[in-house]
Amino acid sequence: MSGPTLVIELAEPVSPASLQEFRALMVGLSSRFEEKRPGFFDVNLPAERLGVEDSREEDWRKPFPLPLLGHTSVDDKLAALVGFNPQHEDWDRPFLVYLMGPGIGDEDIFEAEHEDEPEVEAVLGFRPTHAVNVSACCNGGIDHVATALLTAAVMDVIGGVAKAELLDGRASVVADLPGVLGITDDEWMVLGTAEFLRAWVGQPGFRLLK
Q1: Are 104 and 164 in contact (CB under 8 A)?
Q2: Is this structure's pTM higher than 0.85?
Q3: 26-38: pLDDT as tens digits
Q4: 3-class DSSP state of 147
Q5: Nearest in space to 188 (alpha carbons), one of 162, 153, 154, 164
Q6: What letters, b where the CB count within 10 A reaches 16 and e where it falls short, cover 31-65?
Q7: How far is the C-alpha of 158 from the C-alpha of 101, rounded, in Å?
Q8: Phi, psi of 165 (to 5 degrees)
Q9: What pLDDT digit, counting tens, does each position of 46-103 carry?
Q10: Cα 178 from chain centre
């Protein structure tokens, strides 16, 4: 993944009813939706559906040079420098959002990511049986905000505890936010509720680790 990832730790398997609600949430938020297996969603999400304001100016469609055409004269090449970069026109954000663990899929990834985390388990008060990864496929500022808000929305449906790595020196910034359940002793990981994620997004300089 080229963008940030947050993890939702779960104390028990997701029930069929909760999985159905999870799927309905992702369908409702998405402009493009693909379910690769039960609980594994490859989606594009309009940022506005997560409550992220489109801060671009009305004339944001700035001219952008397209690749020069081959086998043309110099004048023709210069004339080809017109148009718009289609990536600038796409306000939808690509994500992989997937449930993992025994009996559901990606067991190897789940085991590898939870192999040795005694400090995390001490803060959680339980050993996770399953988890959900919310992984952005881009790394712009908007993707960091959208990752946190999407994770919070998923937690509203299936529960769980958000786990996020911290940049150096950021533990003191998040420690007093609402919904913080704890910070590991080495200050590299914070765990919290959906309320915490929404409060964290509003902090100056908010950014997740990739």
Answers
A1: no
A2: no
A3: 999 999 999 999 9
A4: helix
A5: 164
A6: eeeeeeeebbbbbbbbbebbebeeeeeeeeeeeee
A7: 15
A8: -75, 150
A9: 989 998 875 654 444 444 344 444 444 444 444 444 443 444 445 689 999 999 999 9
A10: 20
